[in-house]
Amino acid sequence: MAEDIRHTPKYKMLYEKRKETIERVFADAKEKYSMRYTLYRGLAQVTNWVRLKFAAMNLKKFAKRKWDVDRVLHFYFVFPLFSRSFA
User: What is the largest CA-CA distance in the chain?
Assistant: First the structure.
């Protein structure tokens, strides 16, 4: 049933976006965070290692977004003050 739904026009477009979002995370993990291989053995150790890597990725993403928002807010609230004083 899920396979049939996936081939409807509405969900076909949605499914194509999966490559750009979900699979991109795993590609970045493999390329940028050296997750092609692990130094650990055993499910528990590898699971902890993967969780730590993804936590670092999420914190980095959060910090970058917060930085962008703060920089935009700073520009809009501070820059008009300086532009009025010079006019």
Answer: 67
| Joined tokens for residue 17 | 């976006």
> Tokens at residue 12, please?
């076909």
Element (H, E) at 44: helix 43-86
Per-residue pLDDT of 43-62, as tens digits, reads 999 999 999 999 998 999 89
DSSP tag of 9: H
**If you search the block for the tokens 């995370």, which residue do you land on?**
25
Compute CA distances 48 → 11, 55, 61, 72, whole Å.
35, 10, 20, 36
Asked if residue 33 lies in contact with residue 53, where contact means CB atoms within 8 angstroms, the answer is: yes
With contact defined as beta carbons under 8 Å apart, do 26 and 20 qualify? no
